[in-house]
Amino acid sequence: MKTFLMNNGREIPALGFGTYKLGDREICGYSVETAIRVGYRLIDTAAMYMNEEGVADGIRMSGVPRSEIFLTTKVWLQDCGGYDRVRPALERSLRRLGTDYLDLYLIHWPFVDLEGTWKALEKLSSEGLIRSIGVCNCRETDLKRILADCSIVPAVNQLETHPLNQQKSVRKFQEQYGILTEAWGVLGRAMPQVMDNPALCAAAAAHGKTVPQVMLRFCYQEGIIGIPRSSSVARIVENRRIWDFELSEEEMEQLRGIDTGERLISRTDPDDPASRQKLIDMRFDI
Asked: Is 286 a domain residue?
C-alpha cells in the first residue's frame, strides 16, 4: 500500500475505505472485512456514523492484526469542548472499536469550541491514546484559529474533495504546515455532472479504466488521500485498482481545469449559517 508522510513523521495510507452510511452492523462488518482482505489498510469511521462496532467486527473478521490497520474516528459536535467532554467521547469510541488507541482522531466539524476541543486532542495525544490528530471540514479561517495557539499542528484536514471541487485555496494554505487533505465525497456521489464529465471520461477511456478509478488516481497524484465507500464487493475491489496506471501531466492539467468549486452536498456547506446550525443541533446517542 502506498503511503503519504504526515507532518508528525508518521505514515498514512494513500487510499482508504470510508464507512459513512454503512450503519447496519452486519453490512458494515462484512464491507470492512472485504476491504481489508483486498488490501485496504486505512479504515475511516466516526461516532456519528453509529457503526464503530461494525467496523470492529470487520477488523476482527479480517484476521489482519490491529497493528497493521490505520484506524480513524471522529468526535461529534455534541461532545466537543474541553478535555472533560472529549475524553469520555473518545473512551466510548475506543470501547466500540475494540482498541486501546487510535491512529487518527478528528474533530468532525469546527463549529463548537474548536480551540478547546483541539487542546483536548493535544492532551489525549500526549497520553498515548491517539497517535495523530486532525480536523474535518475546516476552512482556512478555522485552521488559523487552531494554528494561533497550538502545540501540535493538525496532521490531516478531511474535506469534501473531488475533481469538481478541488479545494485548491485551502490546500495551498495547508502546504505551509504539511497538513494533508483527505477527501470525503471523493467520487462526487456518482453525480451525472461528474460521471459524464468529458475530461474524466476521456482519461478513463485512454487508460481502460472507470471514471471513479481516474478520480481516485487524480487525487493520489495530487497528494490527496481518498476514502471511497461502498458495500459492493465489486466496487470495493475496483476502487483499489488505481496503481497500475498513471495520468500524464497533460491529463492532470485538464482535470485541474474542471474544478468549479461545486459543492455536491450543499446541506453541509460550512459557509452557510443555516447548514452550520442544523449540524450543531444534531444529537446522537453516542
From this structure: no
pLDDT digit string, tens, across residues 27-67? 999 999 999 999 999 999 999 999 999 999 999 999 999 99
Number of independent structural domains in the chain: 1
Range of the domain at 71: 3-281
Q: What's 230's domain CATH number?
A: 3.20.20.100
DSSP letters of the chain?
A: --EEE-TTS-EEESBEEE-TT--SHHHHHHHHHHHHHTT--EEE--GGGT-HHHHHHHHHHH---GGG-EEEEEE-GGG-SSHHHHHHHHHHHHHHHT-S-BSEEEES-SSS-HHHHHHHHHHHHHTTSBS-EEEES--HHHHHHHHTT-SS--SEEEEE-BTTB--HHHHHHHHTTTPEEEEETTTGGG-HHHHT-HHHHHHHHHHT--HHHHHHHHHHHTT-EE----S-HHHHHHHH--SS----HHHHHHHHTT-----S-GGG-TT-HHHHHHHHH-----
The catalytic site residues sit at: 49
pLDDT in tens, 187-240: 987 677 888 999 999 999 999 999 999 999 999 999 999 999 999 999 999 999
